[in-house]
Amino acid sequence: MKLEDFYPDHQEFSSEMGSSLDDVKSYDVYAQGDDKVGSVHDILVDDQTGEFRYFVVDSGFWIFGKKVLLPVGMASIDSTSQRIYATNLTREQVEALPKFNDLEKTDYDYEEEVRGVYRPSMGTTTAATTMGTASTAGMMTSDMTAMDTIDTPVTADTTYDRNSYTYDRDAAMYGMNDRDHQTLKLYQERLIANKHRQKTGEVAIGKTVETETAHVAVPIERERVVIERTAAGQVVAGDTSDAFHDDAVRMEVYEETPDIRKETVLREEVTVRKEIDRDTVVADETLRREELNIDKDGNPI
Prior knowledge:
Helix content: under 10%
Strand content: 15-25%
Distance between the termini: 36 Å
Strand order of the largest sheet: 4-3-2-1-6-5
Shape: rod-shaped
Largest sheet: 6 strands, mixed
CATH class of the domain at 3-174: Alpha Beta
Order of helices and strands: HHEEEEEEHHEEEEH
Number of strands: 10
Structural class: mainly beta
Number of helices: 5
């Protein structure tokens, strides 16, 4: 990650490299033969640990404005002259390094390509460092009058892949020592707020069958025949030859019978859903932060 993204308030703290980080971004970078390579364009840090990993160097007119990555362990910072010395860096290496344009594309494969350019020149690592005096604030002061050379053997190790690689395997590239990068670390605590989803209960919705006895009254009708006989003694006049013969009167009789049966009807419909109730939980914590105290005696510069 870029420095300002990982440490948004980095201006408030002293740099691990002994100088204001915003000042370092404007330092010029020099390679072998005191050739000016370009200037520091940005600083990249490990997104897991926050440790410094690379200077983004803008080569300017040296290599036609090409931006490349310089591992911090290969640099020596001189805050007096506002320079960064990359004594193992050559023009040929800068030309061979992949361009740095997009941070999103800076993955393991890209870093391996960068490391592959530097590793051949690091059979022994020769670091030119200044034996100056550092102030109590951790600021490097040097007149570049005394130079020490350190030879650190580097053993090639190819027994790793993208899952097992750690920056410790290339300590000469990424290590920051007290001579080249004088260190005064100031720490602060920051509040991390996360959410965890956990099960707090369960609702089971089902159906059961209940029985009851229902009573119903159905009125019914039955027909019955009523025969009424009335005595009469009237004399029938006229011809009575047709009066005597077989005859019958037919009357149909009906009655109602109850038709009682059951049928199923939809009584009601139940819809089950979940609703989310939102709330904001506010927490207050006491955070600690280290500030730099400088004790001076007399009138030191």
